[in-house]
Amino acid sequence: MKDLTLVLLAGVAAFIPRYFPMLFFSKRKIPDWFNEWMGFVPVSLFTALIVKQIFVTSTYAFSLGNVAAMISAVIVILIAYFTRSMTLSVVLGLAVMWGLTMLL
Amino acid sequence: MKKEQANWLAVLKIAMPLCLSYIPIGLACGVLLHAGGLNTWLIGLVSLIVYSGGAQFLIATMLTIHAPISQIVIMLFFLELRYALLGSSLSHYLKKSSHKFILGFAFSLNDENYAVNYLKFATDKFWTPGNALLVEHYALYTWAISNVIGSLIGSSLTINLVIVDFALTALFLFMVTMQVKRRLTLLTAILSGILSAFFCVTMKSTLGIVVATMLGSTAGFLADRFIRSMSPDSPLLYKVRGPSGTREMINDQALTEERLLDEQNEKTKDTKQP
């Protein structure tokens, strides 16, 4: 039930920004400031999530203890930068993470 | 488009590269949503009504860190706000369409089918809103089916949660790396990361992620405006150099429409590429 509520609300949250601006801006121009602001949203959100996953524990303490994830993260960034391939970045990242959790 | 060819088939050919690229991502997304605790029916439903890779990966992550529903929905809304841009930029091709059509069209809009349709509308004068909707639907069904199959795979495997969590982290790392095109964007990302750690720890809640995102993106936006008006030559506005042969991400096309059009005009009428 809780999950169904989540999914339905998620559907609403996904629908509103898709529909109303499309209707509204069919006769107006999109303001530049909105355009520019939205350009910074995904980067901020994804970094915030990454940092939470790697540096903040489930009890909300700051931690530098997740060494395997830290090393793997650097490797993923390098693979992403040089190959520009999502599949390679994720698959090789997972392989490194798996190897490191075995070793450390 | 050849006249002898049935329309649905011609449109399917255009949508095919998109559909094929959805299969692996959809499978992965289904596996991860299942690991986050959603059952197969709900994964099918979420793929149909949310229909966005980024948003569904966000839901999976927020579920694994036990964020409350309200926060998941707020973050999702914030992330999906970018569709306001995409939808608006297509809207003048839909002027003659009815409200009911726009409703259905908006419902199935996402980053990738936007890119295909934008390109087709801009370069093919025979491209109709009906064809565009058909592209959206082909991609939608491929996406939903891949998610459901992924979920079934996920339920038949026992997955190490530490590793699965890192799959999402790796995915977001990839997306950030792809989006950092200017030094200022890199600084915004770093700031947002620091804010995230700070607010998660001080607020003892995943709400810290929400706060960090709002502050980080606003700071980046304001800094960008300020620097451009005060010192347009600032090194902060320099581009980050990519390796040679860099390919643009589909998401960026909304922001680089003009350049896209220019490129397309240079090419001959080879409009098959999404």
From TrEMBL, chain A:
It holds the Pfam family AzlD. Keywords: Membrane, Transmembrane, Transmembrane helix. This is Branched-chain amino acid transporter. InterPro entries: Brnchd-chn_aa_trnsp_AzlD. It comes from the Bacteria. The chain crosses the membrane at residues 6-25, 37-55, 61-81, 86-103. The keyword Secreted does not apply.
From TrEMBL, chain B:
GO terms for biological process: L-valine transmembrane transport. Belongs to the AzlC family. It is found in: Cell membrane. It is a multi-pass membrane protein. This is Branched-chain amino acid ABC transporter. Its main location: membrane. Keywords: Cell membrane, Membrane, Transmembrane, Transmembrane helix, Transport. GO terms for cellular component: plasma membrane. The keyword Nucleotide-binding does not apply. InterPro entries: Brnchd-chn_aa_trnsp_permease. PROSITE patterns: PROKAR_LIPOPROTEIN. The chain crosses the membrane at residues 12-35, 41-65, 157-177. It comes from the Bacteria.
